[in-house]
Design a protein that fits this description.
CATH architecture: Orthogonal Bundle
Oligomer: single chain
Shape: globular
Strand order of the largest sheet: 1-2
Radius of gyration: 22 Å
Helix content: 55-70%
Distance between the termini: 48 Å
Mean pLDDT: 87
Strand content: under 5%
CATH class: Mainly Alpha
Largest sheet: 2 strands, antiparallel
C-alpha cells in the first residue's frame, strides 16, 4: 500500500507529514520506556529488518491482485506500540529513499496509514483481547492474528479518508472505499497468518522477548485431591539454556530475514498490490508522478547494472535488510542512550552487577503463557 507521489495534493500531503512527524516525536519518547535495556535496541532493529524483508514477499490474493505485510501489528506486539511505529517508519523511509517505493512527498501519508494506524489499531485490539482471553501462549497468538487482520483494512480506510480530502483524481469515494476495504480484508488474512506464525515462533523460543506477552504470567497448577490449586511461588523460571542468549535469537532472525529478502523474494507474486489494483481500476493510477529517486542504484528492488533478475533482486534485498538493521539499531540505540542519560541525571547511579551475555527471563514474564498442568 505504498502511496506514490501525485495521488494526494500538496496541502494534504504536508498535513499528513506534520501528523507523522508528531507521532514519531511521541513514539521516540514512548520508545525510551519500552526499550528496557541496551540489548533491546538490536532486537528492535532486527524487527525493522524483518518487516522490510517480509514486505518484499507479495502473495496472491484474488483477481490478479497481490498483497504484502504492512508490519504494524507484528512490530507492536513484539517490541511495543511506540517502538513499533518507529520500526515501520524506518522501513518506509528506507524504501522511499533507496528503493523508490512510496513517494517522497507521500511519505507522511504512508507513515500515517502504514505505521501509525496499523500499530495503534492492532495494539489496542490486541491488548483488549488478551485481557479477556485465558492467559496462555495460544491466546497471545490468537489475539495477534485478529489484531493483524483488522489493522490492514483500517489502514485502507485511513487512506480512503485522506484521499477523500486531498485526492487528485475525480473519482467516486464510495467506490474507492468499497474496493480498498474489500481487497485489503483479503490481504489482512495474509498479514494475520504471518503475524501469528512469527509471534508464535518467538513465544515458543523466548516468550520474555515478546512485549505483548509481558504481564501475562500464569501460575503453575498442582492437582491436589482431584482439584487444581496454585503452586507455591518458587521464583522466576529460567529460560532453557539452548535459548538463553539474545545474540542467538538476533543471528537467527537476521539470517531468516536475509534468506527471505535475498532468495525467497524472487518467487513473490508480480501482480499489482491492493492499492495499485484499485488505482488502476478507478483512474487514479494516471495521477502518479515519477519518483524523485527513480534513478537510485536500488530502484525497484534491483541493483543497477547487475544482470539477471534473480541476482539483482536478491542483492537488493540483502542490501536492504543490512541497511535497515543498521539504521534501525542506530535509531533505537540513540533513543535508549537518551533514556539512560535522563535517568542518570535524575538519580545517582546504583551499583549493580552487569548482565551476563546469557540472560534469563525477568520475573514479570514468569511462566509467560504456559499451559502447564502438573
Amino acid at each position: 500500500m505504498h502511496v506514490p507521489d501525485g495521488f494526494i495534493n500538496a496541502p494534504v500531503s504536508a498535513a499528513t507529514a506534520v501528523v507523522a512527524a508528531g507521532a514519531i516525536a511521541v513514539s521516540l519518547r514512548g520508545a525510551r520506556r519500552e526499550l528496557g535495556s541496551e540489548r533491546a535496541a538490536p532486537l528492535a532493529g532486527l524487527v525493522a529488518a524483518f518487516v522490510f524483508a517480509v514486505q518484499m514477499l507479495n502473495f496472491p490474493v484474488a483477481g490478479g491482485t497481490s498483497g504484502h505485510l504492512l508490519g504494524g501489528a507484528l512490530a507492536a506486539i513484539l517490541v511495543g506500540p511506540y517502538t513499533g511505529v518507529l520500526c515501520v517508519s524506518v522501513v518506509l523511509l528506507m524504501q522511499a529513499i533507496l528503493f523508490a517505493d512510496g513517494g517522497l512527498t507521500a511519505l507522511g501519508v504512508n507513515i500515517t496509514c502504514m505505521a501509525i494506524v496499523t500499530t495503534v489499531v492492532a495494539y489496542v485490539l490486541f491488548r483488549g483481547l488478551v485481557k479477556v482471553l485465558p492467559r496462555t501462549r495460544r491466546s497471545v497468538t490468537a489475539a495477534s492474528f485478529v489484531a493483524a487482520l483488522v489493522s490492514v483494512p483500517a489502514s485502507a480506510i485511513a487512506f480512503t479518508l485522506i484521499y477523500a480530502i486531498g485526492g487528485t483524481a475525480d473519482v467516486s469515494i464510495g467506490r474507492v472505499a468499497t474496493a480498498m476495504v474489500g481487497v485489503h480484508l483479503l490481504i489482512g488474512l495474509g498479514e494475520a497468518v504471518i503475524t501469528a506464525l512469527t509471534v508464535g515462533a518467538v513465544l515458543a523460543v523466548r516468550p520474555d522477548l515478546v512485549y505483548g506477552a509481558r504481564g501475562l504470567e500464569q501460575r503453575l497448577k498442582l492437582r491436589v485431591n482431584g482439584e487444581l490449586v496454585d503452586a507455591p511461588d518458587t521464583g522466576p523460571v529460567p529460560v532453557p539454556a539452548a535459548a538463553r542468549s539474545r545474540r542467538t535469537v538476533w543471528i537467527a532472525g537476521l539470517m531468516t530475514s536475509l534468506v527471505l529478502a535475498g532468495f525467497v523474494s524472487f518467487y513473490a507474486s508480480a501482480d499489482p498490490d491492493g492499492l495499485e489494483r484499485v488505482a488502476a481500476d478507478h483512474g487514479i493510477a494516471e495521477r502518479a508522478e515519477e519518483h524523485a529517486a527513480a534513478d537510485s542504484p536500488l530502484a525497484d528492488y534491483g541493483v543497477k547494472d547487475v544482470e539477471g533478475a534473480r541476482l539483482s533482486g536478491g542483492l537488493a534485498g540483502v542490501i536492504g535488510v543490512g541497511l535497515t538493521v543498521v539504521a534501525g539499531t542506530g535509531v533505537f540505540w540513540v533513543v535508549r542512550r537518551r533514556r539512560s542519560g535522563e535517568t542518570s541525571d535524575a538519580a545517582p547511579p546504583v551499583n549493580k552487577p552487569s548482565d551476563p551475555d546469557t540472560d534469563t527471563a525477568p520475573p514479570a514474564n514468569k511462566h509467560a503463557g504456559a499451559d502447564t498442568d502438573v
